[in-house]
């Protein structure tokens, strides 16, 4: 029995190692449409934030795991922009998603679905209100953000089109005493190449 267990584990490890050899890098550019999910001290939603377009440039490596399943760690530069009244705010992030994906072949094209956690670091920000303020350096916003993301892509050979969304889970206000909250939310549409 012990020998059978060891043989089964060795077989599974060998299969996983063989599958993990299949690596597919990819690059993509996208339009990113973002806003903020804001709540006041009483927990009521603030509807003043309007979505504005920005851009997103990303790269990832798809590593085959088992059959149609793969993992896709990546990195992206993402511009989150929003507007309240006459004030436009731009938050620039380096985003690191770690996704689990599923690839489905449909004749001449392939569809892939991905989802997982994302970790972001704010590298710069600016606002049009009054003096130019970097909210990460001098203002009241945290640089670190965590969230969840999901996307779907349609592949035609190496070229693909991807529609995705990133939802922040972290209240990015620095003031811990305040019960107000501000979270990032965005969706993007872009094209890419998978090698």
Key words describing this protein structure:
10% helix; Porin; mainly beta; 1 helix; 195 residues
Can you describe what's shown?
The chain has one helix and nine strands; from the N terminus they run αβββββββββ. The protein has 195 residues and is mainly beta. The chain has a single domain, classed as Porin. The chain has an eight-stranded antiparallel barrel. A hairpin with a 5-residue loop joins strand 1 and strand 2. The longest helix is centred in the N-terminal third of the chain and has 19 residues, at 2-20.
The strand order across the widest sheet is: 1-3-4-5-6-7-8-9
Shape: elongated
In CATH, the topology is named Porin
The strand count comes to 9
Order of helices and strands: HEEEEEEEEE
Strand content range:
over 45%
- The CATH architecture term is Beta Barrel
Largest sheet: 8 strands, antiparallel, barrel
Mean pLDDT: 87
CATH top level? Mainly Beta
Radius of gyration, rounded?
20 Å
Helix/strand/pairing class, anyone? mainly beta
Count of the separate structural domains = 1
Point out poorly predicted stretches. Answer: none
Straight-line N-to-C gap: 43 Å
How much helical structure, as a percent, in the residues? Answer: under 10%
Compute the number of helices: 1
């Amino acid at each position: 029995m012990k020998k059978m267990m060891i043989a089964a584990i060795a077989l599974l490890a060998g299969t996983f190692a063989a599958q993990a050899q299949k690596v597919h890098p990819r690059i993509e550019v996208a339009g990113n449409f973002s806003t903020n999910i804001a709540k006041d001290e009483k927990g009521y939603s603030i509807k003043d934030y309007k979505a504005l377009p920005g851009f997103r440039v990303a790269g990832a490596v798809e590593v085959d795991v088992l059959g149609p399943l793969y993992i896709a760690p990546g990195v992206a530069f993402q511009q989150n922009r929003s507007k309240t009244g006459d004030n436009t705010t731009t938050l620039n992030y380096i985003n690191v998603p770690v996704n689990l994906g599923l690839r489905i072949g449909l004749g001449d094209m392939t569809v892939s679905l991905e989802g997982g956690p994302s970790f972001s670091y704010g590298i710069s920000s600016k606002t049009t209100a009054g003096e130019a303020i970097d909210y990460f350096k001098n203002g009241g916003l945290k640089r670190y953000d965590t969230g969840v993301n999901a996307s779907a892509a349609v592949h035609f050979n190496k070229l693909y089109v991807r529609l995705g969304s990133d939802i922040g889970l972290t209240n990015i206000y620095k003031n811990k005493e305040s019960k107000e909250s501000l979270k990032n939310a965005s969706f993007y549409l872009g094209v890419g190449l998978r090698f």
